[in-house]
């Protein structure tokens, strides 16, 4: 069974709630999810993983959460090619840069030759209503890319 590393940072639970929805949907699609808080993950875990989904809330002025900083720097030393990856996050659109952490992580992945399997998912605070569906579609689309890349 294919394993997805789902690593996220969440301070007040909103990003974690998105992770819950994504994990549930990935499992429905027959994938095994290794879930972790990002501060428990090292670059060596990324090297071993075939597929990775990152989640992060945005802090400061469109910045990464502190929990993400070490891994973000460590990623400079690894090659992410051959890996299917995607990023989601929670933010608050009253700030100037909505969900800036999602964009920063995507840029890093691209800079390390990783494949962005599905476009970044940006959710306003905690997911409800239509946003719940968006989270499910994000996970379903990711599962389909993983299945296709496994078959090829
Ligand atoms: C000091 C501070 C700065 C923030 N800066 C931003 C920001 O620049 N852009 C944004 O979209 N959200 C910003 N937020 C909002 C959080 O990203 C948002 O509350 C998010 O839902 C928190 O996710 P969590 O519950 O997973 O910790 C900020 C929140 C705080 C407290």
Based on secondary structure, the structural category is: alpha/beta
The amount of helix comes to: 40-55%
Relative strand content: 15-25%
Assign the CATH class.
Alpha Beta
Low-confidence stretches: none
Bound molecules: flavin mononucleotide
By DSSP (H or I, 4+ residues per run), the number of helices equals 5
Mean pLDDT figure: 96
State the CATH architecture. Answer: 3-Layer(aba) Sandwich
Rounded radius of gyration (Å) = 14 Å
Quick structural gist:
The chain has a single domain (3-147), classed as Flavodoxin domain (Rossmann fold), CATH 3.40.50.360.
Q: Secondary structure elements and their pairing?
A:
Blueprint: E1 3-9, H1 14-28, E2 32-37, H2 43-48, E3 51-56, H3 66-74, E4 84-91, H4 100-111, E5 115-116, E6 121-124, H5 130-151
Parallel strand pairs: 1-2, 1-3, 3-4, 4-5, 4-6
The structure holds flavin mononucleotide.
Structure write-up:
Its cofactor is FMN. This is Flavodoxin. InterPro entries: Flav_short, Flavodoxin, Flavodoxin/NO_synth, Flavoprotein-like_sf. The protein has a single domain, classed as Flavodoxin domain (Rossmann fold). 42% of the residues lie in helices and 22% in strands. The chain has helices spanning 14-28, 43-48, 66-74, 100-111, 130-151, and strands spanning 3-9, 32-37, 51-56, 84-91, 115-116, 121-124. Strands 1, 2, 3, 4, 5 and 6 form a 6-stranded parallel β-sheet that branches. Helix 1 crosses helix 5 (130-151). The longest helix has 22 residues, at 130-151. The protein is globular. Flavin mononucleotide is lined by residues 10-16, 57-62, 90-92, 95, 97-100, 125.
């Amino acid at each position: 069974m294919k394993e997805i590393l789902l690593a996220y940072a969440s301070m007040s639970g909103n990003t974690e709630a998105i992770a819950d929805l994504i994990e549930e949907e990935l499992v429905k699609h027959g994938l095994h999810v290794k879930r972790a808080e990002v501060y428990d993950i090292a670059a060596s875990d990324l090297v071993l993983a075939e597929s990775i989904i990152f989640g992060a809330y945005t802090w400061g002025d469109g910045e990464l959460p502190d929990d993400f900083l070490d891994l973000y720097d460590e990623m400079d030393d690894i090659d992410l090619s051959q890996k299917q990856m995607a990023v989601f996050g929670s933010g608050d659109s009253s700030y100037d840069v909505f969900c800036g952490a999602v964009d920063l992580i995507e840029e890093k992945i691209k800079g390390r030759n990783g494949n962005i399997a599905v476009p970044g998912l940006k959710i306003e605070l905690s997911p409800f209503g239509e946003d719940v569906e968006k989270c499910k579609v994000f996970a379903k689309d990711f599962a389909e890319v993983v299945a296709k890349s496994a078959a090829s």
